[in-house]
Specification:
CATH superfamily of the largest domain in chain B: Cytochrome C biogenesis protein
Number of helices of chain B: 6
Shape of chain B: elongated
CATH class of the largest domain in chain B: Mainly Alpha
Number of helices of chain A: 21
Order of helices and strands of chain B: HEHHHHH
Structural class of chain B: mainly alpha
CATH architecture of one domain in chain A: Up-down Bundle
Strand content of chain B: under 5%
CATH class of one domain in chain A: Mainly Alpha
Helix content of chain B: 40-55%
Helix content of chain A: 55-70%
Radius of gyration of chain B: 30 Å
CATH architecture of the largest domain in chain B: Orthogonal Bundle
Largest sheet of chain B: none
Number of strands of chain B: 1
Oligomer: heterodimer
Number of domains of chain B: 2
Structural class of chain A: alpha+beta
CATH topology of the largest domain in chain B: Helicase, Ruva Protein, domain 3
Shape of chain A: globular
Largest interface: A-B, 90 and 72 residues
Chain lengths: 722, 158
């Protein structure tokens, strides 16, 4: 029943999307704007069917309908409720279905927001987006169909991948990344629509910019949460390994960030049009390449649990996208010529151009390094590894250059800079930078790259704060306004600028955290007896003992007495056993006496077994922080996998983290081996998330005033005639 | 289900006890072992170095590095030892020669081209003394330039 309903909805979505794509592109090219409502209806139909299909899947998961193939694959009666819902995206087919729902939501939001605007581009843009939606609906209907009906369903399933059940971050990290990936469809459609139409007006740039910023934010948050998850769960003491899947999410982020900067040059100087559009197209194509890397299993990475035969379909789609984008850029490029010349290299636009060069080179490094093993294996039959050391050596200098440009750019005016003024402006930030670098050296940092990073970061922070507060200070002096009032007014007047600089501050926090935690970390490893202590940095870690137990699913079931098994836990008193008693061979034997087999008992079942090495972290001051079995480093054993999944302890502090993971243990002797680290400032990578969100929201805030003053009310002509 | 749990409990009696056969090295040489370990790929893991991996195979390989360090081998000799057994695949950092040279040269080439293009496309002699060369007069009055640009654009449309 659910299979038929869910699959029918997918087919409906496929038809709607295909209809919208054909009608949109054909009528758009013929410039018959009267067909727009039909394109919109197609989009709405696609959105509705995809969202409904997902709701049916969630319902099937919750009711454990094992006649649906996907539920049989990832469902289990013992999985806690929240992870049952999360299992929607815990394996390939479900995640592509979920992808469809997000795609539907985005397309609906875009089509509905501008339902009465931008008529000249809208059909073409919606048509292109619907074409992408058609591809994904086809994937769900065919190669990655989660709805296949199973004729003789089993009564229980294996449950989702254990890694996904290990940490709450796994609940929000994948949806954030999907929101980032899928969202790039919108700027792709906007840009492709402009190219197909052959013109790019100022007004069409506004949605292009905004609808790139939205997925950019989700991508940023998704990437950071992913690194946090890797840090908090995987236990190897790092957060970024240049894994192909991490790289896949990083590349579109880089090009989208470059886009956000080059779009400023486009606005101010009416230049770099083709380049900016190319970046918008590239961001989307890279998300698709990234999805291919993640989902096809061409790379053996941590994430390759989602292998399937969708690879060839994706390769064809990537080929089509590349040809389509290249043809569009080549055939319509001449319509996007620059309308003014750029200033000198020592100007705002000069620094943004250099920023774009650095971002492009870094994207190339990541792409090349990720694909190179495939290239050498395919062409020369030679297996090579491109690992962390390569990426670090290439990316760190480029990152430092970016950081430097983040300080230099905002200091320089558009056009060309007056060297004297620039020199004067650079004195204070430069001095602060030198002092910061020296201070970090005095604090014991010896790595040249780290000291440079701290120095340049100090410089950037001063420049950014000055740019943030200067307009407010002017208002305070001129209009005698209060500080808060002046700040709010100046921020709302130029919200994109203001928000952008706040995002810069968040990025500086991340860069400093990365530099400090990687160059200032302390590592110790060893085996301890119960009560033994180990020194790591200024901290001591005492190993108390090994503890063993089960984690229960908090999912109460009522079963017959005859079905009781050892290991289950009673949730209400029964036969003289109190609520909370775990059934053992002994107490079960006693309780069985005189019980009728049809009596009802409510119980919960264990979903994992654990061995924890409980420990106490001792500060330099002597203060002790004990950890219980729940949050001590441990090994979790799941029914589904033979290998235990380790889970580290992170004693999180503002200034530094103490990080302990359990390497091995021996129950006969009671000893345990640990890996321990002290990471300075590492938490600031994730604490920067709210700063990024705040800055982006400020930048996204609608500007009412400008549109009212510059364009006459119903201005239909928003493009420059070609 | 219960059976599987029982199996895992049996497994849980002891998990991958590490080989601790070697005498602990002095801090300096151990740091060198860790540094070299970071540059060698664990054979059974997924893209992780032998210094980062908890797998028993990786720990055995790290012990081998310890052994070679004690024997007084140079870094290159240790790398060669592993390349001879596992191929260039064992190196986390690809060599700057042979097929992997492109990895190192490619991005540098692109960087050079990029900087050259930026240099070519920005005006060289746009000193502030001669703003007439710059085609956009609005840069002189940054307070108004957005507005002027919009007006100009609107005028062009009509």
């Amino acid at each position: 029943m659910n299979s038929i309903l869910g699959y029918g909805l997918v087919l409906t979505g496929l038809l709607c999307a295909a209809f919208a794509a054909v009608v949109g592109i054909v009528t758009g090219l013929a410039r018959k704007e009267s067909a727009l409502p039909w394109v919109q209806r197609g989009i709405y139909g696609f959105a509705a069917s995809m969202i409904l299909s997902n709701l049916v899947m969630i319902e099937s998961l919750l009711t454990h309908d094992f006649s649906v193939k996907y539920v049989a694959q990832v469902g289990s009666r013992t999985t806690p409720l929240i992870f049952t819902i999360v299992s929607l995206w815990s394996a390939l087919e479900g995640s592509i279905l979920f992808w469809g729902a997000i795609m539907g939501t985005y397309l609906f939001a875009f089509a509905f927001t501008y339902r009465k605007e931008h008529g000249r581009y809208m059909q073409l843009s919606l048509g292109v987006m619907a074409a992408v939606a058609t591809f994904f609906a086809f994937l769900i209907a065919g190669p990655a169909n989660p709805w296949t009906a199973i004729p003789n369903p089993l009564s229980d399933g294996p449950g989702p991948n254990p890694l996904l059940q290990n940490h709450p971050l796994m609940i929000i990290h994948p949806p954030m990344l999907y929101l980032g990936y899928v969202g790039m469809t919108i700027p792709f459609g906007i840009a492709a629509g402009a190219l197909l139409r052959g013109e790019l007006g100022d007004a069409w740039l506004v949605p292009l910019r905004k609808w790139t910023l939205v997925p950019w934010l989700f991508l940023s948050v998704g990437i950071i949460l992913g690194s946090w998850w890797a840090y908090a769960v995987l236990g190897w003491g790092g957060y970024w390994a240049w894994d192909p899947v991490e790289n896949a999410s990083f590349m579109p982020w880089l090009t989208a960030t470059a886009f956000m900067h080059s779009t400023m040059v486009l606005e101010k100087k009416k230049s770099l049009k083709l380049w900016t559009i190319a970046l918008a197209l590239a961001s989307f194509v890279l998300t698709i390449i990234g999805t291919f890397m993640t989902r096809s299993g061409v790379f053996n990475s941590v994430h390759s649990f989602t292998q399937s035969d969708i690879g060839p379909t994706f390769l064809v789609f990537i080929g089509v996208l590349l040809v389509f984008s290249a043809l569009l850029l080549a055939s319509r490029g001449h319509m996007l010529v620059a309308e003014s010349r750029l200033g000198s290299i020592a100007s705002r636009e000069g620094s943004i151009l250099l920023n774009n060069v650095v971002f492009t080179v870094l994207t190339f490094v990541v792409l090349l390094g990720t694909l190179y093993p495939l290239i050498t294996e395919g062409l020369f039959d030679k297996k090579v590894t491109v690992g962390e050391p390569y990426f670090n050596q290439m990316a760190l200098p480029l990152g430092l250059a970016m950081l430097f440009l983040m300080g230099v750019g905002p200091m320089l005016p558009w056009g060309s800079a007056d060297p004297k003024v620039t020199q004067q402006q650079a004195i204070i930030p430069g001095a602060v930078g030198v002092v910061t670098g020296l201070l970090s050296w005095l604090f014991g940092y010896t790595s040249f790259l780290a000291i440079m990073t701290f120095g340049v970061a100090g410089f950037v922070v001063v420049v950014t704060l000055r740019e943030l507060f200067l307009p407010a200070r002017q208002r305070m002096n001129e209009n005698k306004e209060s500080f808060m009032n002046a700040l709010v007014v100046s921020a709302t007047r130029a919200n994109r600028r203001f928000g952008g600089y706040i995002v810069h501050l968040g990025i500086v926090a991340i860069v400093v955290a990365v530099a400090a935690s990687s160059s200032g970390k302390v590592h110790a490893t060893g085996t301890l007896k119960p009560g033994g202590e180990m020194q790591v940095g200024q901290y001591k870690v005492r190993f108390n003992r090994l503890e063993e137990g089960d984690d229960f699913s908090n999912r109460v079931r009522t079963i017959k007495v005859g079905q009781l098994q050892t290991g289950m836990r009673l949730t209400s008193a029964w036969k003289g056993l109190a609520a909370g008693t775990v059934l053992t061979r002994e107490n079960l034997m006693t309780a069985f006496q005189g019980a009728s087999a049809s009596e009802d008992v409510s119980i919960e079942e264990p979903y994992r077994h654990y061995i924890a090495a409980t420990l106490t972290v001792i500060d330099p001051s002597g203060a002790e922080t004990p950890f219980t079995a729940r949050n001590s480093p441990r090994m979790n054993f799941y029914a589904r996998s033979t290998d235990p999944i380790g889970s580290p302890t992170v004693d999180e502090r503002i200034i530094r983290d103490v990080y302990v993971s359990l390497l091995a243990y021996d129950q006969r002797t009671g000893t345990a081996s640990f890996n321990m680290w002290v990471f300075p400032l590492v938490g600031w990578i994730w604490y920067a998330i709210p700063i990024l969100v705040l800055g982006t929201l400020i930048a996204l805030f609608p500007q009412r005033k400008k549109t009212a003053t510059t364009s006459p009310a119903p201005a239909p002509a928003d493009g420059v005639p070609s | 289900m219960i059976q599987a749990l029982l199996i895992s409990i049996v497994l849980a009696q002891g998990y991958a006890p590490p080989r601790q056969g070697q005498d602990p090295l002095d801090a300096e040489r151990e740091a060198r072992v860790q540094r070299i370990g970071k540059l060698l790929r664990c054979a059974v893991c997924q893209g992780v170095s032998i210094a980062d991996s908890p797998a028993s195979m990786a720990r055995a390989q790290l012990d081998k590095v310890r052994e070679l360090v004690v024997e007084g081998k140079s870094d290159d000799e240790i790398f060669d030892y592993f390349v001879a057994r596992y191929g260039e695949w064992a190196l986390m950092e690809p060599r700057k020669s042979g097929v992997t040279l492109g990895l190192w040269v490619g991005p540098l080439l692109l960087l050079a081209i990029g900087i050259f293009l930026v240099w070519m496309n920005t005006s060289k002699n746009a000193a502030p003394a001669q703003p007439a060369v710059v085609a956009s007069p609005e840069t002189e009055k940054p307070a108004e330039d957005e507005y002027l640009a919009k007006v100009r654009a609107d005028l062009e449309k009509q």
